[in-house]
């Protein structure tokens, strides 16, 4: 019983088992296949799968595919892949569309009980008749159709005799209910569209508010966990289960949505970013989608630890993106081999090092995990260093390379800057240094100290690599969507991606998509699975090394 620490949902489950209301917990994760999963969904997945698992219960993956206009098999497949990748196994794989016949029968039952009617009002009229929070709604002139007429019209809706929007089926509840959701909600609509699962079999589709409780009840779900915006729908949920005379009575329980700073978290908005070209697809590493995070280099473990740490409550939460980064750093610290990479290269020639000589230096693969062993790094007369590790005219307290100064090359020797070579425009193109043989790393040299240690890559064996560095996709102000005439698109960060061509150590030639490394001083990187080819390595920065964030 330890996936989930104590929380109010778990308490309800404990009570229901103790009282004998249920003898097995059944949950479901019910995505609509109209987009890719995002990190918010990971929380719902974790809650549903984690809680059922704590009680030896079961969790189904159920596609809530009742809207063929927006759904697609591409999304079904990506969702399955993402749930598995996150480390969860569903018991049954189910589709709401498999129950369309059953749902139709329940709708007919409602008509027969005088609890549903076919309405000819347009969508606009229905909205108008619905009233407001302060004013009751008005009955539709079609509300009192006879049961026979309703049965006939509903069947003809199903048979395709009407156009989209010409008629709907509504539940007959109460047009003056203080809860607007109970003011005769639409439960079926006409949509002449091909469904990814049922093809052209149906041209009427159940609405979410009607379909969802039936799906839960049909599957014997005991606790139907959803996000807080469905709280006002709970009376309707219960009404549907009761009036449709379902055998099982699932209980809807709401929790607060997870939001993260500097991003957006709704499929509608994420789709807009994709469709309008702000990002390079749903799996762009800047996206908060599971596929984007996977491509960036997040591990399933880090995502699970993160969502575990975000409390389950009734309130929507806004979590700092740095907390997410903290967890991936923690996870990779012990897993990722260390290496050196030069993102913005500057050539250094060590003038007193023998020409043509290559020396193999020893370095630990991961100093925190000695069992990972050692690696060999070539060293020679020509190396690359980071352009910003040199300054011709440094400010005080700059301890890296500048004319006359000596620094330590990580795993190698002390070098001293003797000469700066520039091109015609005055740009520094090469540094000439001397090295001191007796300062070799690992030999215990204590003769003198230097203040700066910089990293490097031997030039003649260096492997070219592309580095992609990311900044937040959305600027802080994304919350001010209400600002006049502004949408979240006005807050997209136009500098969210920086691409550099540099070099990595020769032993990196062997690396494979999704291999993860800690580049000395630069942070953790993932080998991009899409754009890496045999000729070109592409590294996505997952996260830099340090953050001020503390949990
Ligand atoms: P979106 O608004 O992003 O499209 P959704 O709620 O419409 O999300 P669904 O496919 O219906 O997406 O979601 C499947 C499940 O995941 C639902 O139970 C939903 O409540 C839950 N979920 C979606 N977003 C979040 C979130 N940010 N935090 C927690 N749970 C979420
Ligand atoms: Mg939805």
Give an account of the 3D structure.
There is one protein chain. This protein has helices at 8-18, 39-54, 73-85, 100-112, 123-129, 147-158, 208-219, 234-243, 267-275, 290-296, 300-309, 321-335, and strands spanning 26-29, 58-63, 93-95, 116-119, 168-171, 186-190, 204-206, 223-227, 251-255, 258-260, 317-319, 338-339, 341-342, 345-350, 359-364, 374-379, 382-386, 406-409, 414-422, 428-436, 453-454, 456-458, 463-470, 497-504, 516-519, 523-527, 537-543. 25% of the residues lie in helices and 24% in strands. The chain is an alpha/beta fold. α2 crosses α11 (300-309), α7 (208-219) crosses α8 and α11 crosses α12. The chain folds into three domains: 8-255, Rossmann fold, CATH 3.40.50; 258-332 and 467-504 and 511-551, Glutamyl-trna Synthetase, Domain 2 (Glutamyl-tRNA Synthetase, domain 2); 339-462, Ribosomal Protein L25, Chain P (Beta Barrel), CATH 2.40.240. The strands form seven sheets. It has a seven-stranded mixed beta sheet, covered by helices on one side. A seven-stranded mixed beta sheet has the order 21-18-19-20-14-17-22, with no helix packed on it. The radius of gyration is 31 Å and the shape is elongated. The protein starts with 7 loop residues before the first helix and ends in an 8-residue tail after the last strand. Adenosine-5'-triphosphate is lined by residues 30-32, 40-41, 43-44, 226-227, 257-258, 265-267.
Helix content range: 10-25%
What ligand molecules are bound, each kind once? adenosine-5'-triphosphate, magnesium ion
Low-confidence stretches: none
Amount of beta strand: 15-25%
Number of helices: 12
CATH C-level name of the largest domain: Alpha Beta
């Amino acid at each position: 019983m330890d996936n989930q620490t104590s929380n109010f949902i778990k308490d309800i489950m404990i009570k229901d088992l103790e009282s004998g209301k249920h003898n097995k917990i059944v949950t479901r994760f019910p995505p609509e296949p109209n987009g890719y999963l995002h990190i918010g969904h990971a929380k719902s997945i974790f809650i549903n799968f984690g809680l059922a698992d704590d009680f030896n219960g079961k969790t189904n993956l159920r596609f809530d595919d009742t809207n063929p206009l927006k759904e697609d098999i591409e999304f079904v497949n990506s969702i399955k892949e993402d749930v598995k990748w996150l480390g969860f196994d569903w018991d049954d794989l189910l589709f709401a569309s498999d129950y369309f016949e059953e749902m139709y029968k329940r709708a007919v039952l409602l008509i027969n009980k005088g609890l549903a009617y076919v309405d000819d009002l347009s969508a606009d009229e229905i909205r108008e008749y619905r009233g407001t929070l302060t004013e009751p709604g008005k009955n539709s002139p079609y509300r009192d159709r006879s049961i026979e007429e309703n049965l006939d019209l509903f069947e003809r809706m199903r048979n395709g005799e009407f156009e989209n929007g010409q008629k709907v089926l509504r539940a007959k509840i109460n047009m003056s209910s203080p809860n607007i959701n109970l003011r005769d909600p639409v439960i079926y609509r006409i949509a002449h569209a091909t469904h990814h699962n049922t093809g052209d079999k149906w041209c009427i589709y159940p609405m979410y508010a009607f379909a969802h409780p039936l799906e839960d009840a049909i599957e014997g779900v005991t606790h139907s966990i959803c996000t807080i915006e469905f709280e006002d729908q709970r009376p309707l949920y219960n009404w549907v289960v009761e009036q449709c005379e379902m055998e099982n009575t699932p209980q809807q329980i709401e929790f607060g949505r997870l939001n993260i700073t500097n991003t957006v978290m709704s499929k509608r908005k994420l789709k807009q970013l994709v469709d309008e070209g702000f990002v390079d697809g749903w799996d762009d590493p800047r996206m908060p989608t599971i596929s984007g995070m996977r491509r960036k280099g997040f591990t399933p473990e880090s995502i699970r630890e993160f969502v575990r740490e975000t409390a389950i409550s009734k309130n929507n939460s806004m979590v700092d993106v740095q907390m997410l980064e903290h967890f991936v750093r923690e996870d990779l610290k012990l897993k990722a081999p260390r290496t050196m990479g030069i993102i913005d290269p500057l050539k250094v020639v060590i003038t007193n090092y023998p020409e043509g000589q290559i020396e193999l230096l020893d370095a630990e693969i991961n100093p925190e995990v000695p069992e990972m062993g050692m690696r060999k790094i070539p060293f020679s007369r020509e190396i690359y260093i980071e352009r910003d590790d040199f300054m011709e005219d440094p400010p005080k307290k700059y301890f890296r390379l500048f004319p006359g100064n000596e620094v330590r090359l990580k795993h190698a020797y002390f070098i001293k800057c003797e000469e700066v070579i520039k091109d015609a425009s005055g740009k520094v193109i090469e540094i000439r240094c001397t090295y001191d043989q007796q300062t070799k790393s690992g030999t215990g040299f204590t003769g003198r100290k230097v203040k700066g240690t910089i990293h490097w890559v031997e030039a003649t064996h260096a492997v070219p690599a592309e580095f992609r560095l990311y900044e937040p996709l959305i600027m802080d102000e994304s919350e001010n969507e209400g600002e006049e005439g502004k949408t979240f698109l006005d807050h997209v960060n136009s500098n969210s991606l920086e691409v550099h061509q540099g070099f990595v150590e020769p032993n990196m030639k062997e690396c494979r998509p999704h291999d993860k490394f800690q580049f000395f001083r630069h942070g953790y990187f993932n080998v991009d699975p899409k754009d890496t080819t045999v000729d070109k390595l592409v590294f996505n920065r997952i996260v830099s090394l340090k953050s001020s964030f503390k949990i």
